[in-house]
C-alpha cells in the first residue's frame, strides 16, 4: 500500500513528533525553515560585530572577559545554526554568499550604532532578553536539529541577558553621568528592540504557515507584548524611564498598552538603509575574504589526507 507522505508529515506535526533531516517534508516547509534558520544564523554572526567593537574598551578586566565570552558564544550559535540549515540541503557557502550579497536578511537590531558602554548593557538586557523570549519557544519547534540547537543557545542567551542587566544595575548605582548615559542608551534601544519581534501579526507574511507547521508557537505580537510586560518592572528597578508616553497598565486586558512602533523605520532598516547596514556587511565580507587562506588550507589538507589513504 502506498504511503501518503503528506499525511505522515501532518500526523507528526499534530502529535508533536519532530521532523528529522531525512524525513519527507513539503518543499515549502523546507524552504521556510532554510529562510528562518539562515536568517537566524546571520543575526548571530552579524550580532558579534557591534559588541566586538567594545572588547578593547570594556571598563575592567572582568567586564572584558565576560564580553569576550559572550561574543564567542554568538559565534558558536551562528555555527550550530548554519549546520542546522545544511541538514535541509543548502550549502554553507550559498548561505554565506546570500548574506554577503545583501540578499539574505538578518535581524534589524544589529544595524544600530553602539555609542557608549551603557549600550553594551542594553544589548544584553533588552536585545538578548527579547531574543530569549523569541527563542525559548523555538526549543519546541517542529524541526529536530533547529529545536535541539536552541536548547544550548537559550542557556547561553540567558547568561547574556543576566550579565547585561547586572552591568546596568552597577551603572544605576553610579554617578549622575552614568545614570544619564544609561537613560540615553535606553532611549535609543527601546523601540528598535520592540521591532526585533517582526511586523504586526496582520502584516507577518510567514506567520500563518509557520504557526500551522509549529515552527512558530507564538505570534510576533504575542511575544512583543510579553516582552513589554516583563521589562517594565525591570526598568523601574533600574530607575529608567521607558521612552513611550503611551505605555500604561491596562487593567481590563491584564497587559501594558504601548505606543505605535515606527514601521517605516523598521522596513527601512530591513531593506538595508539603517545607520550601520553598510558597515556591518562590509565587515562581514572583509572577514570572509581574510579567512580565505584558512579555507584553502583546510581543503588542501583534506586532499593530502585522501591521497595518503589512496597510496
Ligand atoms: N529584522 C529583519 N527582518 C525581519 C525582522 C527583523 N527584526 N522581523 C521580521 N523580519 C522579516 C522576516 O524575515 C520576513 O522576511 P522574509 O519573508 O523575506 O524572510 C518579513 O520580515 C516578514 O516577517 P514575518 O512574516 O513575521 O517573518 P517570520 O515569520 O520569519 O518572523 C521572526 C520573524 C520572529 C524574527 C522569526 O523569523 C524568528 O523567530 N526567527 C528566529 C529568531 C531570530 O532570527 N532571531 C534573531 C535575532 S536574535 C539574536 O540573534 C541575538
TrEMBL record:
Pfam families, per the entry: PaaA_PaaC
Origin superkingdom: Bacteria
GO cellular component: cytosol
GO biological process per UniProt: phenylacetate catabolic process
Gene Ontology molecular functions: phenylacetyl-CoA 1,2-epoxidase activity
Entry-linked InterPro entries: Aromatic_CoA_ox/epox, Ferritin-like, Ferritin-like_SF, PaaA, PaaA_PaaC
PANTHER family, sorted: 1,2-PHENYLACETYL-COA EPOXIDASE, SUBUNIT A, PHENYLACETIC ACID DEGRADATION PROTEIN PAA
Protein name: 1,2-phenylacetyl-CoA epoxidase subunit A
Organism of provenance: Faecalibacter macacae
